[in-house]
Amino acid sequence: MGEEAHERRQTVPRPVILDQHWDQAFQNSPFWLRFELGGEVLGNRDQPVPRFLQAFHRAKTLCDALFAQSDSVIAILAAARCSADDLFAPAENAMAVLEAMGFRPPPPSGQWTAPLIPNDDDAPVLDWHAMDLADHVSRDTLVWNAIVYEMPLTPKAPVLSWLVDFDRGVMAHIYDDRGMDIHALDRESIAPLYRQFATWLLDFDRPRMRAAFERDSSQVTDSLT
Mean pLDDT over all residues of the chain? Predict the structure, then answer.
């Protein structure tokens, strides 16, 4: 009881100033889950629509569960500076394309320019935006965009996205149609997702996740198909 209560207190408020180090606390935490979205059966090229439908269903289900108790969800967006040359979604104005897809956030609460990976001279320099999401429509538009980015489906914009509840210390990032990561600053914030969506966890990462989330192997239930 004491240990669990201590873990639940390991959260931090939203940073006063958002900059290139906004996710440092999440990256330093050992509590993160990696989920498989598109899977190995449905191909990107020969079955893109069924693959997308499965990936979108899983990603939306996971985001709904993760943010069910959230009062505020912040979208951290990173847009290519030379988006017209983007390999998968060339666009003259990446953010304008995202808005044309139905993304309707309020004005940014923070903006900065930084490389995708801090202190990496070879990483691309991106324009970053922090925006409060008031509804699920904008959030689900970002989910769509993240999944279709490397797929032969449109519309899509060359924009990377992260969804964060700083007050609860949880973050979701869909890296493409293959999968998504969910980070937390404490075990108990996302342990229910580890148990409830066990069959969606990426097999390769199961030993790491088991070590981080299982005190007792009987806690895990493979209840999904």
Answer: 88
